[in-house]
Here is the input.
Amino acid sequence: MAKMIVMIILLIAGMGCLLYAKLHFAKRQMNDPDNKWSRQENISRYTGYVICVIDVIIAGFINF
Here is the structure.
């Protein structure tokens, strides 16, 4: 049960980071269309990816 709770929290955090980065990028592109991720957006994106990968590792390989 604890594993499931940790996985859900990590999934929400990871997807939240990815969603934040994408929405921030889309909003910024309306005013300044340069089709390039900003530093803050890249940090949010990669943080989201890392959190989601950790979630998959916990789901598949770690039993507690």
